[in-house]
């Protein structure tokens, strides 16, 4: 890890714009050198939090720390923070070298130092031999790397990203997000990343913070959020899920005619049973929720199917080459594999 990386701490942050409360008592720690993502629907306060960390917006209440420094009142230009946007905001009339060197020119660093530091970050982000290229003659991914290099050359304490990939096409988005992840891990700079794309969040983050209407709904490692979402909102937002009304007695859960052994520290009584699509097991008979195969779609890598039951329609997914045990219209019994089940307080 980067020895100079600092943790960033938000303490009881509230942000109001007149009558609008954009952020409501958010407390959060970004571990030193890690990448934390704010994930949530439009308007939930992601950008507002990012802008407060950057110093572009003052919190109405609460404090922000970089390490042990209280930066709450510190202006943006003294925070050593850089922010990346979807529009890379590169200077179109300058080549790659000059775009990257810009911040050092502004601060009047000597030419030798500029040459050396540009060469350093160019190598870090893999833009060798493109220094003299006009930025308009670069691919979207390369432009993204120029923007990143331009940030890194300022040796920021914190890197901020606001939906940096949203104007790239799907394939490129995937590649660039892997590059950002790789680079961020290599550099070990504490980073805060904003997106409303759950797959992107899961792919790049050490920690994902799910937000809803200005508050933190749940935070955790991607796998933790997927396996143990505390609310239906999180379960729905992180991956796909079936939600069934059921009951829980401490050792087993029941949905309709189907009871299965299950243990989770949660209040007994009515619960919502969340079942991931890959955790459905379909058989022709035996134990399981009674249903009828409704649809089957072979998609190559996977096969997706739906089953109608008295508890509602269930979505299932399995490996594309796995044998399907029932045809459309046939009666089936559906079981749930425990690792994809989680009970949510009803
Ligand atoms: N300068 C402002 N003045 C008034 N209201 C604002 C201002 N900035 C943000 N808001 C409001 O605060 C709330 C949160 O906005 P924010 O931009 O943080 O959302 P977001 O999660 O980044 O959404 P998106 O995914 O659409 O970018 C919204 O209701 C927004 O309208
Ligand atoms: Mg935003």
What does it look like?
The protein is an alpha+beta fold and 346 residues long. It folds into two domains: 8-227, 3-Layer(aba) Sandwich (Rossmann fold), CATH 3.40.50; 240-345, Nucleic acid-binding proteins (OB fold (Dihydrolipoamide Acetyltransferase, E2P), Beta Barrel). The chain is 25% helix and 36% strand. The protein contains eight helices and 20 strands. The protein has helices at residues 46-54, 96-106, 111-125, 140-152, 170-187, 198-204, 222-227, 232-237, and strands at 8-17, 20-30, 35-39, 61-66, 69-70, 81-84, 158-162, 190-195, 207-212, 215-220, 242-248, 252-255, 258-261, 269-275, 280-283, 289-298, 302-309, 312-319, 331-336, 341-345. It has a six-stranded mixed beta sheet, with helices on both faces. It has a five-stranded antiparallel beta sheet with strand order 13-12-11-14-20, with no helix packed on it. A hairpin with a 2-residue loop joins strand 17 and strand 18. The longest helix is centred in the middle third of the chain and has 18 residues, at 170-187. It is elongated. It starts with 7 loop residues before the first strand and ends with a strand. The relative contact order is 0.12. The structure holds adenosine-5'-triphosphate (ATP) and magnesium ion.
**SS field, number of helical segments:** 8
Name given to the CATH homologous superfamily of the largest domain: P-loop containing nucleotide triphosphate hydrolases
End-to-end Cα distance: 43 Å
DSSP strand content: 35-45%
The quaternary organization reads as: single chain
Q: Helix amount, in percent?
A: 10-25%
State the shape.
elongated
Task: Strand order, main sheet: write it out.
Answer: 6-7-8-3-9-10
């Amino acid at each position: 890890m980067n020895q100079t990386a600092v943790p960033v701490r938000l303490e009881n942050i509230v942000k109001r714009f007149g009558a609008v409360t954009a952020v409501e008592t958010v407390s959060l720690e970004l571990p030193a050198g890690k990448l934390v993502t704010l994930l949530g629907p439009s308007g939930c306060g992601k950008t507002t939090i990012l802008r407060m960390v950057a110093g572009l917006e003052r919190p109405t209440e609460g404090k922000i720390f970089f390490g042990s420094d209280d930066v709450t009142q510190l202006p943006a230009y003294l925070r050593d923070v850089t922010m990346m946007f979807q529009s890379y905001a590169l200077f179109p009339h300058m080549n790659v070298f000059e775009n990257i060197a810009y911040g050092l020119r502004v601060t009047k660093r000597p030419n030798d130092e500029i040459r050396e530091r540009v060469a350093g970050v160019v190598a870090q982000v893999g833009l060798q031999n493109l220094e003299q290229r006009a930025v308009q003659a670069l691919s979207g991914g390369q432009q993204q790397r120029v923007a990143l290099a331009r940030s890194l050359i300022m040796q920021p304490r914190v890197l901020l990203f606001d939906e940096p990939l949203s104007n790239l096409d799907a394939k490129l988005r995937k590649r660039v997000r892997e590059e950002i992840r790789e680079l961020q891990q290599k550099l070990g700079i504490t980073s805060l990343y904003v997106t409303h794309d759950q797959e992107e969040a899961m792919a790049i983050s050490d920690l994902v913070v799910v937000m809803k209407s200005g508050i933190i709904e749940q935070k955790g490692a991607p796998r933790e959020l997927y396996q143990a979402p505390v609310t239906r909102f999180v379960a729905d937002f992180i991956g796909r899920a079936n939600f069934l009304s059921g009951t829980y007695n401490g050792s087993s859960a029941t949905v309709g005619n189907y009871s299965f052994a299950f243990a989770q520290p949660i209040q007994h009584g009515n619960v919502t049973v969340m079942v991931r699509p890959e955790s459905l097991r379909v058989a022709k008979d035996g134990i399981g929720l009674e249903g009828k195969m409704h649809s089957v779609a072979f998609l190559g890598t996977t096969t997706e199917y739906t089953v109608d039951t008295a508890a509602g329609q269930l979505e299932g997914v399995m490996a594309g080459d796995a044998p399907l045990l029932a045809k459309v219209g046939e009666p089936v019994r559906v079981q749930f594999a425990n690792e994809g089940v989680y009970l949510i307080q009803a």
